[in-house]
Amino acid sequence: MKLNRLIPYLYLLPALAFLLLVYIPIFQNIFDSLYEWSTFSPEKAFVGLDNYITLFKDPVFYEALKNNVLYAVVSIVFQVFGGLVVAAILEDKLIRRFSPLFRTVYFLPVVVSMTVIALLFTFFYNPEVGLLNQFLKMIGLESLAKPWLGDSNTAIYAVIAVSQWQSIGYIAMLYIVAIQKIPPELYEAAEIDGANKIRRFFHITVPQTKEMTFVAVILTLTGAFTVFNEPYILTGGGPGTSSEVLSTYLYKTAFSQDMMGYASAIATIILIITLLLSLFQMKAFKTGKGDE
What we know:
This protein has a two-stranded antiparallel ribbon with strand order 1-2. It contains 13 helices and two strands, in the order H-E-E-H-H-H-H-H-H-H-H-H-H-H-H. Helix content is 71%, strand content 2%. By secondary structure, it is mainly alpha-helical.
C-alpha cells in the first residue's frame, strides 16, 4: 500500500528534474553576478553589488535598454495588434476560401531560421544593390535611399522591421485559433443589429480574444527583451552602440571582454525585467479569472 501511494510522486520526478535544470542556472547566475571573475581564471573576487552599481552608471546599458524598450513597443503594435488584424481579415467570410494560401504565406517566415533571414536582409538593405534602395530610386524617392544598417539613425529601426516581418505570422496563427473558437452567433447577432465589420472587430473579436492577447503580449515582450540574432547578425550592435540591445551587450561583455561577473549582472537585469513584465500583465489581464 505504501508503494502505491509513492507511485504518483514518481511521475513528478521528471518535472522536478526539469525545474532544477531551469532554476539552478538562474540562481548560479545571480550568485556569479556578485563576483568579478574571468573564464580563464579559477579565482573569483567578491565585489558584492559593485557590478550592478557600475552597470547603472554605464551609458551603453541605457542605450541598449532604450533599444529593447523601442523593440517592445513596436512589436506590440505590429505583432500583437497587427497579427490580430491579419487574423481577423483571414477569418472574414469573403477571404476564408483563400485563407489556407494566405496562412502559408504569412507563416512561412516563421519556419525559416532567423540567421538565414538576417543574412537575406543584409542584401535587402544593401546601400548599392539592395532591393529597398533600388525600389525607392525606381519610384522617384532617391533622396530617401540610404545605408539603412550603416546609419546610426535608422539601424535599430531596420533591425526591428526584420523581426516584425518574421514574427507577425506566428502571432496571427495564434489569433486565428482564438477567433475560430468565438461563437458565430455573436457575429450574426451583431450583423443583424447593423454593426459593420470594424465595430464587430472591436466589440466582439478583441474582447473574445483577450486570453490569446495575453499570451501574445507575453511572447512578444519576452522576445523583445531577449532578442539577439537580428541585431548581432545585421549590425553587431552598431554603428557604435546605436542598435545595441541587452543580449548583444551581454554577449560582448562576456565573450569579447571576458567580464563574466558584469555579464551575469546584465543577465540578471534581463531576468528581472521579463519577470516584472509578466507579473504586470497577469495583473492587468486578470487571466484565468472571470470579469469582475
